[in-house]
Design a protein that fits this description.
Length: 140
């Protein structure tokens, strides 16, 4: 049975090395556990969608919650799903600093990634639009 989980968090010390290290961990761990998803980052904020089997996603989220490299982890969305939406990526990434501000303004008050101030549904809609506009980069 598949689930989709989306959360937001704030980086302790945002820098490119942190993103690279998270992506490296994701790419080694996620395929083995059948996890796919997207990691958005910008302005020191993360928003990540995880998809996969319920136990695998819950176990990974528990590890992520305890990761000292970020804080203020907030669950935005959790649901059982019939199919994956982000199945093309072991962990795709989106640098929100490079996204057209119109797309961000469509869903939020300010042209920045701010999942803390919008609903989980809106965050999911933004992720879908990022996917539809080919804004997600990463290996499959
Ligand atoms: C924002 C963020 C996203 C992460 N995403 C993943 C992920 O998709 N897959 C993964 O294996 N680890 C991810 N990690 C790293 C985990 O928190 C953890 O460090 C890693 O799985 C190793 O766990 P372990 O030390 O318990 O083996 C993420 C960490 C952060 C801060």
């Amino acid at each position: 049975m598949l689930v989709r989980l989306i959360y937001a968090s704030r980086a302790m010390e945002p820098d490119a090395n942190l993103i690279e290290s998270i992506l490296a961990q994701s790419r080694s761990h996620n395929p083995v556990h059948g996890i796919t998803g997207i990691l958005c980052h910008g302005g020191g904020i993360f928003m990540q969608a995880l998809e996969g089997g319920r136990s695998a996603v819950n176990a990974l989220y528990a590890r992520i919650l305890n990761d000292p490299r970020h804080y203020d982890v907030v669950l935005l969305h959790y649901e059982e799903v019939l199919e994956r939406r982000f199945g093309g990526w072991t962990m795709g990434q989106v640098n929100m600093g490079r996204i057209n501000t119109n797309m961000l303004l469509k869903y939020a008050e300010k042209p920045a990634l701010d999942p803390y101030s919008v609903s989980g549904k809106v965050s999911l809609a933004l992720l879908e639009e990022l996917m539809a506009t080919a804004s997600v980069i990463g290996r499959t």
